[in-house]
Amino acid sequence: MRSFNKLLTRTMAILLITLLTACSSVPELENNTEAPRVKLPTGYAEKAIINEYYDPWEGFNRRMYYFNAKADEYVLLPVVAGYKAVTPDILETGINNFFSNLGEISVFINALLQAKPAVAAETFGRFAVNTTVGVFGFFDVATPIGLDEQNEDFGQTLGVWGIEAGPYLVLPLLGPSSLRDATGAAIDMLAFQAVINELGMAGEEELFLSMLSSIDTRANLPFRYYSSGSAFEYERLKILYMKYREIQIAR
Amino acid sequence: MRLISIFIMLFLTACSTKNQPEFKVEAYTCDIEYTRYQATVTGYCQEAAAILPKSIPTIEKEIELRAIASIPEVFWYSTKMKYSLIKQEDKAPLAFVIAGTGASYQSSKMISLQKTLFQQGYHVISLSSPTYSNFIINLDSTTDFPGVLAQDAKNLYGIMQKVYQQVILEDNVAATTISLTGYSLGGAHAAYISKLDESEKVFNFEKVVLINPPVSLYNSVTILDSYLDLKEGGRDAASAMLDDIFSAFAQSYASQKSSAFSPGSIYALFKDAKLTDEELELLIGASFRMSSSDMLFALDVSYNLGGFIYKNHEISKFESVTNSMHRSHIVTFGQYFEKVVVPWQQENNPNLTREALIEQLGLKNIENYLRNADKISLVTNADDIILAEGEVEYLADVFGARAKIFPRGGHCGNMDRISFVEYMNNQFQGAK
User: Fold this and answer.
1) Do B317 and A97 touch (CB under 8 A)?
2) CB contact B259 to A (< 8 Å)
3) Does one domain contain both B213 and B228?
4) What is the CA radius of gyration of chain A?
5) Containing domain of residue B153, as a range?
6) Beta pairing class for B123-127 and B92-98
7) Are the beta carbons of A148 and B260 separated by less than 8 Å?
8) B55 — contact with chain A (CB < 8 Å)?
């Protein structure tokens, strides 16, 4: 299992690097084309809000965006629909609470790393209450008693430390990210894995848990690729993602 | 508004959307200071929300109107026209609903109309606006431009017939009577479709309700264009203002206790951000411009106009369209009218003047019909931002007792509020 993972990671890394640099999003023009009639004022593109965000891997990103949409259509969403059909609502909520509760550990660590003791304390309180009274996190009893949910991750921590977002990056299956946030997500995942290892589960149980976690995550995202109908969905989502991260980091 | 729904979508998607059983939908109102711009952006949240079904059994439908092979590759996800059906179990009255400018059959305003009508016992068929990309791309036409109301109505009427046949065939829909409604531009479309139906007599509408329609498209579009046109400083001033709005939101979010988003916390964000009317206008103008650039790009691709994209060039599905988007962003609706609509209409009808065309694009053109059509009702707000001076009075005059004018709500800001839904329930009583 472990050596397979290593091989997979390595192959993915090589594939990613190749793809990032190899694909182009620049059009190949036919012979009889005519330039667009609407001309932009000089310097417009530099000033446009969207160009604040560096996207040198656009060719790769657009392909990955498309791949994600197809993976959603043919794999993830059908699985989610099946999951929703067979799982009673109350269990679905419980499972969602369970994974959120596990996620509190990473929120807690990141709050500490960002020197936010109040957030860390609140998160610790949530984790303690939900794990005990809330039966391993299946019930969220912390929110009603005024311990609010917080949201921190290592990408935000890096941001707070002053690291810029870097190029926009669309990750396989996970979607919009940036070089900084993807790095952060990888580190959060390693930390999460360490927690799972502590639970001392067998390989298949671990696999089941991570699959369930992925299904739960997708089931709780109302986003649907291309559902805005806009030809500029890629651009708009990029701005929203980057702006949203700025808001989160400023918090 | 689109921008707001995207904001909300982002908030909902980007953070964990935990179910909150203790959260009561009907309980919250906001205590943001009321202005008609605020109501247009956040909704008329000072009034309580109506109690509507939480979920409705929506069936996603699609219909092939144009050969799939002829759909441009950049719109690969948009082959077939999409619409939705919400079906009652038994025989019931049916209502068609038409979306507003740039909106799809599943926009948030459409969903609140669907819930209202479904709750009243209607089958509901929802259609996107003729200004929505998926509609434009699938329209089997080489000459029609969205916004020319009589043409839009003719196209919609044809599609409604095909769609109606499809739901009878595929979903066994049995309708007792047929009604029609639409909001914003969709309201103007409903008026024209109703008139067309008087001669074609396919549906013989029982009831037609126009919700916040424009009186003159030209006036409405001029108003909305002007919101983004900050005369002093132009673009730089607009981006600076957008940056300010953004940092106001960021600050407000930073001061909130919880990082989770609920409708209540979104109102709180707006409250703390204390946006000025000018800033709200900018948001409305920007949202409208986003709709119009989607529409113009779809038209450009569909008709090979060479406006923002290379003429005679087939855009592949992985190709960057960012530069085309920039170009489409600098074009106002007014320019679309002057540079595209007027010349194309004149090509088919050389005697048509620009002024006569402006007259044709609005309700005044069918005023006689509207004055005498008892089946048609009108509902709007006295402070609707898309109405120019004197147009509220004009609507009150033309529709007389069939007009309901709420004092507040801005443009379509009250469509899910108690008194509006109550009005709709009185209009649509088909099942009772």
Assistant:
1) no
2) yes
3) no
4) 21
5) 58-219+364-427
6) parallel
7) yes
8) no
From the list A38, A45, A248, which residue is nearest B307 (CB)? A38
Q: For the segment A169-225, what is each residue's pLDDT rounded down to a tens digit?
A: 999 999 999 999 999 999 998 888 887 788 777 778 888 888 898 899 999 888 899
Q: Is residue B112 part of a domain?
A: yes
Chain A nearest C-alpha distance from B419 (Å):
30
Contact (CB<8Å) B239/A49: yes
Question: Which residue in B246, B297, B329 is closest to A243 by CB distance?
Answer: B246
List Cβ neighbours of B398 (8 Å cut-off, separation of 6 or more). Answer: B363, B367, B370, B371, B378
Count of structural domains, chain A: 1
Judgement on whether residues B266 and B414 belong to the same structural domain of the protein: no
- Residue numbers in A near B318 (CB within 8 A): 23, 25, 59, 62-63, 66
Mutation site, A51, A247, A248, interface B, largest B CB count within 10 A? A247
For B50, residues 6+ apart whose C-beta sits below 8 A from its C-beta are: B116, B416, B417, B418, B420, B421, B422
Looking at every residue in chain B, the average pLDDT score rounds to 89
Question: Residue A177 has what pLDDT?
Answer: 96
Same domain, B205 and B241: no
Q: What is the pTM of this model?
A: 0.89
DSSP letters, B93-140, are: EEEEEE--TT--TTSHHHHHHHHHHHHTT-EEEEE--TTSHHHHHH--
For B217, the 3-state DSSP assignment is helix
pLDDT at B11: 43
Chain A nearest C-alpha distance from B129 (Å): 12
Contacts of B293 (CB under 8 A, 6+ apart): A232, B325, B328, B329, B331
CATH of the domain at B123: 3.40.50.1820
Instruction: Return all residues near B193 (Cβ < 8 A) that are at least 6 apart.
Output: B98, B153, B156, B157, B160, B180
The per-residue pLDDT for B207 is 96
**What pLDDT, on the 0 to 100 scale, is given for residue A49?**
61
Task: Indicate yes or no: CB of A150 within 8 angstroms of CB of B298.
Answer: no
Has the ipTM of the complex gone over 0.90? no
Instruction: Note whether A45 contacts B: Cβ–Cβ < 8 A.
Output: yes
- Helix (H), strand (E) at residue B406: strand B403-406
Give the number of domains in chain B.
Answer: 2
CB B295 within 8 A of CB B56: no
Q: Does the pLDDT at position A71 exceed 90?
A: yes
Instruction: Please check whether residue B256 lies inside any domain of the structure.
Output: yes
Does a structural domain hold residue A155?
A: yes
In this complex, is the C-beta atom of A25 within 8 Å of any C-beta atom belonging to chain B?
yes
First and final C-alpha spacing in chain B: 33
What residue numbers bound the domain in which A238 lies?
A: 54-250
Q: Which of B1, B8, B17, B19 to mutate to test the interface with A (most CBs of A within 10 A)?
A: B19
Q: What pLDDT sits at residue A19?
A: 67
